[in-house]
């Protein structure tokens, strides 16, 4: 019996639980962290993708909310793009034991190892906090003849449809793969290094379709430069007036929904005091106005999980991605 892809993949969202109270020996957490570790200078936040995309937005917003939560911590954002995230994650792997470097993480953390292109997996790092879930929209140029995702699928049965993707491990490639598996069609892929490059290619007519996070494309949507054909989400964006009328793929007969997580990693090999400091800092960060602004500006679902609960989420999400990318 065929199992609903949205039902299978949506199970990850229920894995996020509230982290139990942290150990009592970590010191006063009112400043955003325990007393056993304090950064000696500015912290580096690595973004493993180029400027302008959802990962870049996440990394810069996370830096801002950390600084808001703990006024003693400064965070510098550093883009390390290349290899669909592999360059940035590999550089971060080399920071083992350095608790003054963080990374803005997403689904590539799991998809890259499954692809067999890298020599690490999520267990080589220290999961700190899952910040949110981020769904995508299928986007076309404003003058495209397609009005729904179903139109695109029907066209793909008889003609070449060029899909831009931000690397083979990106959420866009995952939802396009799920769409292919669900409908039996096949898209031609053209890889780009970031959502910003992907948007430019779409506007320039180099590709037919793209799958972009709302936060990446909202400006072009509101300007009428592009149009959204469907949302790869469980439900419509009813809380966001500007997106509320976009049908889900499932409403159009394509049973696909999958969210990219947004989160924060510390390097592997850090001590318990440093791990505790960053967990407490991020727990304070998600209580800030800056976090709420990030969620609202980027049309996210504020599903958080800290420390061990983030690890549990990653375990479950990794199993599901293996089914998709290896199956």
UniProtKB/TrEMBL annotation:
<dbReference type="InterPro" id="IPR005064">
    <property type="entry name" value="BUG"/>
</dbReference>
<dbReference type="InterPro" id="IPR042100">
    <property type="entry name" value="Bug_dom1"/>
</dbReference>
<comment type="similarity">
    <text>Belongs to the UPF0065 (bug) family.</text>
</comment>
<protein>
    <submittedName>
        <fullName>Putative tricarboxylic transport membrane protein</fullName>
    </submittedName>
</protein>
<feature type="signal peptide">
    <location>
        <begin position="1"/>
        <end position="23"/>
    </location>
</feature>
<keyword id="KW-0732">Signal</keyword>
<dbReference type="Pfam" id="PF03401">
    <property type="entry name" value="TctC"/>
</dbReference>
């Amino acid at each position: 019996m065929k199992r609903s892809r949205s039902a299978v993949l949506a199970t990850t969202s229920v894995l996020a639980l509230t982290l139990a109270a942290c150990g009592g020996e970590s010191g006063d957490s009112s400043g955003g962290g325990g007393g056993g570790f304090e950064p000696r200078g500015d912290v580096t936040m690595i973004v493993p993708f180029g400027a302008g995309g959802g990962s870049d937005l996440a990394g810069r917003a996370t830096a801002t909310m950390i600084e808001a939560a703990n006024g003693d911590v400064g965070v510098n954002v550093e883009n390390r793009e290349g290899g669909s995230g592999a360059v940035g994650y590999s550089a971060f792997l080399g920071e083992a034991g350095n608790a003054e470097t963080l990374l803005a993480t997403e689904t590539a953390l799991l998809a890259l190892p499954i692809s067999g292109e890298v020599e690490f997996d999520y267990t080589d790092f220290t999961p700190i906090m899952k910040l949110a879930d981020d769904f995508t929209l299928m986007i076309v140029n404003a003058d495209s003849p397609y009005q729904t995702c179903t139109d695109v699928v029907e066209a793909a049965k008889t003609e070449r449809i060029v899909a831009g993707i931000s690397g083979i491990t990106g959420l866009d490639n995952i939802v396009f793969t799920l769409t292919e598996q669900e409908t039996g069609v096949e898209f031609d892929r053209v890889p780009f290094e970031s959502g910003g490059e992907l948007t430019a290619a779409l506007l320039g007519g180099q590709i037919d379709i793209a799958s972009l996070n709302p936060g990446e494309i909202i400006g072009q949507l509101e300007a009428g430069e592009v149009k959204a054909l469907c949302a790869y989400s469980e439900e419509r964006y009813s809380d966001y007036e500007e997106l509320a009328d976009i049908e889900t793929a499932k409403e159009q007969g394509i049973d696909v929904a999958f969210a990219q997580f947004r989160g924060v990693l510390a390097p592997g090999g850090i001590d318990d005091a440093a791990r505790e400091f960053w967990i407490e800092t991020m727990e304070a960060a998600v209580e800030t106005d800056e976090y709420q602004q990030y969620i609202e500006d980027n049309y996210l679902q504020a599903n958080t999980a800290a420390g061990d609960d983030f690890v549990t989420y990653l375990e479950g999400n990794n199993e599901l991605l293996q089914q998709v990318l290896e199956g």
